[in-house]
C-alpha cells in the first residue's frame, strides 16, 4: 500500500498504519464525532492529514483514563496539537480524573489487604 502525500486524504487503513490504532478504533472515534471523515465515491472513509495527530491524542487521553464521552467534551486544542500538554479548559477535568483514580487505588488496596488476610487466616474478615 502506498503512502498518501501530505495533502491527499488518507484511507482508514493508511490512518491505522500511521497511528498504530486499529481500523475498528478509528471507526469508533469517527462514529462518535472525534474525527471528521468524508466518503469517497467508492464509499470508503477518507480522513484529512490532521487525523493522524487527532488519533494519537485520542489514544493518549484514553490511556490516561478518559472516556470517549469525556474526550468529546474537550476543546479542539486537545485534539489538534500532537503531544499537547493540556488546555486550561480541561485542567479541572484532569484533576477530577486523578482524584477518581486515587480513590480506585485506595479501594483496590483495601480489597487486596482483605484478600491477603483471608488467605493467611483462612476466613473472610469482617467488612470495615
From TrEMBL:
Keywords: Coiled coil, DNA-binding, Repressor, Transcription, Transcription regulation. GO terms for molecular function: DNA binding; DNA-binding transcription factor activity. InterPro entries: DNA-bd_dom_put_sf (IPR009061), MerR-type_HTH_dom (IPR000551), MerR_fam (IPR047057). Residues 9-77 form the HTH merR-type domain. This is MerR family transcriptional regulator. Pfam families: MerR_1. It comes from the Bacteria. SMART domains: HTH_MERR (SM00422). PANTHER family: MERR-FAMILY TRANSCRIPTIONAL REGULATOR, REDOX-CYCLING DRUG-SENSING TRANSCRIPTIONAL ACTIVATOR SOXR. CDD domains: HTH_MerR-like_sg3. Residues 91-118 form a coiled coil.
Amino acid at each position: 500500500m502506498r503512502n498518501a502525500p501530505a495533502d491527499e486524504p488518507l484511507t482508514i487503513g493508511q490512518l491505522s498504519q500511521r497511528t498504530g490504532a486499529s481500523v475498528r478504533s478509528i471507526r469508533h472515534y469517527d462514529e462518535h464525532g472525534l474525527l471528521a471523515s468524508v466518503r469517497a465515491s467508492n464509499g470508503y472513509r477518507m480522513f484529512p492529514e490532521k487525523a493522524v495527530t487527532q488519533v494519537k491524542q485520542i489514544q493518549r487521553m484514553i490511556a490516561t483514563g478518559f472516556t470517549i464521552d469525556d474526550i468529546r467534551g474537550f476543546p479542539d486544542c486537545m485534539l489538534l496539537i500532537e503531544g499537547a500538554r493540556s488546555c486550561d479548559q480541561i485542567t479541572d477535568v484532569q484533576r477530577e480524573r486523578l482524584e477518581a483514580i486515587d480513590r480506585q487505588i485506595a479501594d483496590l488496596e483495601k480489597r487486596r489487604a482483605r484478600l491477603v488476610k483471608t488467605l493467611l487466616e483462612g476466613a473472610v474478615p469482617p467488612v470495615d
